[in-house]
Amino acid sequence: MRWVLCRETHNRLQRIVGVLGFTHVDPARVFCVRGYGSTSEAWARIWGLPSLWQQVLGTRPAYVVEIIEPEFSRLPQDDQDRVLIHELLHIPRTFSGAIRPHRTPTFRITRSTVEQYYRRYLASATGRRNVLLRAEHSRLQPGADAATALPPHPSAAAPPRSPRERRMPRRKP
Asked: Phi, psi at residue 144, to the nearest 5°?
C-alpha cells in the first residue's frame, strides 16, 4: 500500500462542505489521499483520529478520506461526488475524530440519504434549482427530452429487501 496526498480531491471536498453547509466539518482538518495497492472493493473510506491518539499526540481531531485507486477514478464524476458526500456523512456533528456509523437511532447513511444530499449539492452548486426540477420532472414523464433527463441512479433498479434479507448478505448470482 502507498498513499499520496491529493489536493484535487481536497478541493472537491471543500466545495461540497461549503455548498451543503456542513459547518461542523473543518476542511483544514480533513486530509485527502489516494491509496494504491488496496485489495478492498470500496471506492473510498474515511479514517478518524481517536481521542486517545489526540491526547497522546497533543493534537486536534482530524480525518483522512482515502480514495482507493483505480476503482474511484473509474466512476463517473457524479458518482464520485456521491462517494465523497457519503464519506463526509461519516463525520459526526461534534467533529471529534470519531466515525459515525451507517445506522444510529437518529440518522442513517443510505443511498437514499446520499442521493438527497447530492441533489441539494447539485442544485446549490449550479445555482439553478429550476433546471434540476425540470430535469427531474422530465425523467418522470414518458417520452421526455433525453438531453434534460437525469440518468437513474444504479441502485434504483434494485428491488426492496425484506428486514430478514437486509441482515443477510446478498449472494452473487
From this structure: -70, 165
